Amino acid sequence: MVRVLLVDDQVSYRRLLARLLRTNGFDVVAEAGTGREALLLAAATAPELVVLDVLLPDFDGFEVARRLEAGPVRPAVVLVSGRQRADFGEFADLVLVRGFLGKDEFTVEALVDLLAEG
């Protein structure tokens, strides 16, 4: 089972996504609402995958991914956002980032496909 950390400041979306992932065989080990909380939980739980919202209240998902990449826990990262991929410019230069999914297009199948590509 893939160990997952979910990071999104919208509690209702995070809970829905956690339920969807658990139903499909993922082990959601923790949930975070901020970048700082995500980094602390990543260090404590050592997830294999971080599903990471781009827009967070303290710093953005790109910064969280950069800090994860520089640290001892180096999970795969899938960025999610309510905005379009083109709105953020180039993000793929981060090694840990496996891909980007819009919140409106997020499915377990799309996530699995991104993970299989890496």
Topology:
Elements lengths: L2 E5 L3 H13 L3 E6 L2 H11 L3 E5 L7 H10 L5 E6 L15 E6 L5 H10 L1
Parallel strand pairs: 1-2, 1-3, 3-4, 4-5
Helix pairs in contact: 2-3
Descriptive account of the structure:
- It is built from four helices and five strands; from the N terminus they run E-H-E-H-E-H-E-E-H.
- It has helices at 11-23, 35-45, 61-70, 108-117; strands at residues 3-7, 27-32, 49-53, 76-81, 97-102.
- Strands 2-1-3-4-5 form a five-stranded parallel beta sheet, sandwiched between helices.
- The model has no long low-confidence stretch (mean pLDDT 88).
- Keywords: Phosphoprotein.
- Residues 3-118 form the Response regulatory domain.
- It comes from Saccharothrix texasensis.
Net shape: globular
Separation, N- and C-terminal Cα atoms: 17 Å
Low-confidence stretches: none
Question: In percent, how helical is the residue content?
Answer: 25-40%
Largest sheet: 5 strands, parallel
Strand order, largest beta sheet: 2-1-3-4-5
